[in-house]
UniProtKB/TrEMBL annotation:
<feature type="domain" description="Response regulatory">
    <location>
        <begin position="8"/>
        <end position="133"/>
    </location>
</feature>
<dbReference type="InterPro" id="IPR001789">
    <property type="entry name" value="Sig_transdc_resp-reg_receiver"/>
</dbReference>
<keyword id="KW-0597">Phosphoprotein</keyword>
<dbReference type="GO" id="GO:0000160">
    <property type="term" value="P:phosphorelay signal transduction system"/>
</dbReference>
<dbReference type="InterPro" id="IPR011006">
    <property type="entry name" value="CheY-like_superfamily"/>
</dbReference>
<feature type="modified residue" description="4-aspartylphosphate">
    <location>
        <position position="66"/>
    </location>
</feature>
<dbReference type="Pfam" id="PF00072">
    <property type="entry name" value="Response_reg"/>
</dbReference>
<dbReference type="InterPro" id="IPR052893">
    <property type="entry name" value="TCS_response_regulator"/>
</dbReference>
<protein>
    <submittedName>
        <fullName>Response regulator receiver protein</fullName>
    </submittedName>
</protein>
Length: 145
């Protein structure tokens, strides 16, 4: 990624273990990024709409979204993001433990950019997250902000 600033990854995840694994993968893969973690759907939308304590927050370059969240479901968040002209250009990667075909189809219908089932082993989780973030942050051209 040829930007002068670190890209921002918004990690919408309520599981502290998955947050640790994702952050550790970034460090190990030498992926320079600012990771913002929010633990529920309401907090995620406040951040994205730059409200409250997130008023001065930079919008993320990519979003890693768990589907099963407290307060506001990940599917609802995805729908809101993709209906908002300012937010809809941000790639949203559903990163979830759900293997439900209904969730896969619904996520793509809601315009998720990718659907990834969380691997159960650390090595596989690290490989998948590294490959995903390498693609989105080093290969794909994202909109300038």
């Amino acid at each position: 990624m040829t930007r002068e600033r670190k890209p921002v990854i918004l990690l919408i995840e309520d599981n502290p273990g998955d947050v640790r694994l994702t952050c550790k993968t970034l460090e190990k893969g030498k992926i320079e990024a600012e990771v913002v973690v929010v633990k529920d759907g309401a907090e995620a939308m406040a951040y994205l709409r730059q409200r409250g304590r997130s008023a001065d927050a930079r919008l993320p370059d990519i979003i890693l979204l768990d589907l099963n969240l407290p307060k506001k479901d990940g599917r609802e968040i995805l729908a809101e993001i993709k209906q908002d002209p300012q937010l809809m250009v941000i790639p949203v990667i559903a990163l979830t433990s759900s293997k439900s075909e209904d969730d896969v189809v619904k996520s793509y219908r809601l315009q998720a950019n990718s659907y990834i089932i969380k691997p159960s082993s650390w090595d596989e989780y690290e490989r998948v997250i590294s490959a995903t973030l390498n693609y989105w942050l080093r290969i794909a051209k994202l909109p300038d902000r």
